[in-house]
Amino acid sequence: MTLPDLLILRHGETEWNRAGRLQGKLDSPLTEEGLRQADRQAEILAALDLTGWSALSSPQGRALATAARALPGRSVLQDARLREIGLGDWTGRLRSDLAAEHPHLFQGEGLGWYDHAPGGEGLLALESRLRAFLGALNGPVVIVTHGITSRVLRCLAQGLPVKAFETVGGGQGVVYRVSGGQSELLR
């Protein structure tokens, strides 16, 4: 799949991120640090020529709040395909509690446990909706989304298997440029 250039932003830190609580489809407000991260994203984007670029965001509050600060004065359309992976019964739970209940899933720093949430969306469904999203793009776009969604999106845009999502890097308030199948973290 040939893709246009992408700038992929993860929302800034939220209160639940700081507490270690899984958000999934739910939301919590950006922290002061999250607001600073969104402002830093705005600085990074301001240094780029975004003439002809569109802007799309997850409809979830934390992404929209980040988009408002990172893309001031720009029209940002919402796309539900950019929402975070659904976590089913684990939505709103503390990661530490889940790790205590399911230690075999949370050994080490891996993220594969996202695929085991009871009633959750799962990585295959996330991959399917993100392939549809990428297939519909017709020009360069700034994307404001979430942690796991960003990782899987970048895997697909780079032609990597989705299972590589654990290795492509993450972080709060980051900006990745994906062009010609290569990803670069902008600082």
UniProtKB/TrEMBL annotation:
InterPro entries: His_Pase_superF_clade-1, His_PPase_superfam, PG/BPGM_mutase_AS, PGM_Phosphatase
Ligand binding (substrate): 10-17, 62
Pfam family, one: His_Phos_1
MF terms (GO), sorted A to Z: phosphatase activity
Annotated catalytic residues: 11 (tele-phosphohistidine intermediate), 84 (proton donor/acceptor)
PANTHER family assigned: BROAD-SPECIFICITY PHOSPHATASE YOR283W-RELATED
Name of the protein in question: Histidine phosphatase family protein
Species whose genome carries this gene: Sedimentitalea arenosa
